[in-house]
Amino acid sequence: MLTHCGTEIINTEHLILRPFKYDDIQDCLKNWIADEKIQSMYAEPVYKTTDEVKILFDKYISSYQNNNYYRWAVIHKESNECIGQIAFFWVDSENHFAEIEYCIGQAFQRKGLATEATKAIIDFGFNKINLHKVQISVKEINPASRRVIEKCGFTYEGTLRDYFFSSGKYISRLYYSLLRSEWKNQR
Predict the structure, then answer these.
(1) Close Cβ partners of 168 (under 8 Å, ≥ 6 residues apart)
(2) How high is the pLDDT of residue 63?
(3) Cα(155)–Cα(91) distance, integer angstroms
(4) According to the model, what pLDDT value does residue 166 have?
């Protein structure tokens, strides 16, 4: 049985993972949510205006009242900016698993921050929610994200071939998972 607790604040060495606030809108526009390259890597729309982001944040912020909703703003401690987001965007309470999505702005990539955030919510999922499995997927054209996934100890499960149609071509989706027992053995 899962122990839902909602989106709690998580501190790591370089990051604070916390619920989104309306004050984050300008950082999001600056760092990631208006960046077509970033948003396309996890199949999300590009948001160009404050009003568009506010509508999205209305959804995020109102969902925090649900104890099975898990979406964090990724705050870089050094700059105090929202540099991305990470979530258990799908939680299956019946089968005790959750799926992760994340993005980090281009200026903050290749610094280990996506790995740090992902490991933090994996730990949260197993320790606090009592998940049995965490899964994640990535577009085949995103080798940097595959490296994050591998550093976090996920096992490759398979490929959904030609899953996305983008810019006139098909892109496959690779699936990975991490079981509680594997996570314990890695610690």
Answers:
(1) none
(2) 98
(3) 19
(4) 85
